[in-house]
Sequence to fold (499 residues):
Amino acid sequence: MDKKTIPVMIIDDEESILNFMSKALKKEGYEPHCFVEPRLATAKLSTVNPQIVITDIVMPTMNGLQVLEAVKQFNVETNVILITAHASVESAISAMRGGAFDYITKPFEIDELVVTLKRALSSKRLNTVFPAIEKKTQSMYQVSKLIGNSPKMHEIYRLLEKVAKSDSTVLVVGESGTGKEMVARAIHYSSPRKSNPFVSVNCASLPDQLLESELFGHEKGSFTGALATKPGLLELAHGGSFLLDEVGDMSLPVQAKLLRALQEREIKRVGGIENIPVDVRIIAATSKDLQAEIEKKNFREDLFYRLNVIPIFLPPLRERREDIPELISHFIGYLKEKYHMPKELEFLPDGMDYLMTYHWPGNIRELENIVERIFMLAEKKSLGRDDIVQLLGTELRSVKDMTRGGTMLIELKNETENVLKRRRLSRHSSNRMEINFRQLNGFILVVRRCSIKSKSTTWNRPVFRTKCKIFLHSEVGKAVFDKIKSFRLYRNNPKIINA
Ligand SMILES: Nc1ncnc2c1ncn2[C@@H]1O[C@H](COP(=O)(O)OP(=O)(O)OP(=O)(O)O)[C@@H](O)[C@H]1O
Ligand SMILES: [Mg+2]
Fold:
């Protein structure tokens, strides 16, 4: 946004103050329109079409509160900054309730005015870009709206409540989909900064140069394609909170610039010379092990210490499985509302068991997606395990984890299909097998074409299929593998295909 294109209306009955402000704003590159007479000013609103109105409160013919009212009638989005002598601070506060953006008290430094002006503009830009989201998130994302009653989550809530009150930098660490962004928002919307912007940037999704100019802004002509001056997102978040998402993916040059900004509490736009003070609460999030990245020289140690003031570790979903039923009913409720579908849906014990014992490598995000798929596709009210598998068209499995290094794929071959077909498994042994698989739950990521499903019609007892593939989490893979070897049926032939 080029400042020269931003008309600002200034109203004050003291001409000297008017001149003083006008000069300063011109120097800053704004387009000031000055009025000593408030009535004339309000009559000219549609001609000037100001982005911001700065007005004195006490004036002889019309006071600042009446100006505010007129401006809001003209355009509710136009921000009004009030200038007030100490004596009339109270009326300024009541004006704020009436929709004024902020007030400054006389005598003031011009810097103070400029900073307030920038904030008024940025909040305007943010609010016009994301008005609905901002309102929705405000009510949606307080700490009290987080779902989960497990001891681990309660520990996190206690920490969040404390952290929210402070201004300390927070580093949220957790696997993908564990709720890092949600926690960052919860901190912001439970903090005193909640009515100021929450801005986030995903450091992994933008190429270097773009990330730099998004964060810090750029001056017109500072690089090819920089057709206009653009304030950075850090600048726009002034007074609010800033989420540096996937901070572990930030390149070293941008890390250096960010470190400087955090130390100095001011930024310089790309190609700019001016230092712009910013007051933002930094929340960084990452799914990477930053210590390991430091060792690999991918992450600056000094930046790490700046960010890691209050670390918050979000546990993977598989470590708080007791939260799964609550999360599921939360998502179902949300979907009903979102799609206006008064659909009733519940899970039979074996269905819930199935969802609770899955490994959830994609954590809450994966759970949310699966619940949405089931919700959309389900035609009956009560769903068991087989219904879920049928609806999803496959056993629960995560493509991502299957390809991730360190995951082990084990193929278990039964003796031979023929032998199996002839074999009648005793109830005892089949049950044991089932129990063992259950005990291994949490370690087994995917059990495909596996066991226990088909029943011999004659005996009505489980018959194992010829082949099953089990994807194991690497840390426990070996132990589980040994355990599987101890199953009578597979004793001789489990084979690691991919370790
Ligand atoms: N405690 C929670 N209660 C309810 N919903 C949650 C909770 N935590 C996360 N979610 C939901 O799970 C999804 C993933 O959360 P979020 O985007 O915050 O995770 P993330 O850790 O930032 O993921 P990624 O690493 O993939 O960016 C979101 O849709 C979010 O609404
Ligand atoms: Mg995220």
About this structure: The first strand starts at residue 7 and ends at 11. DSSP finds 22 helices and 22 strands in the chain.
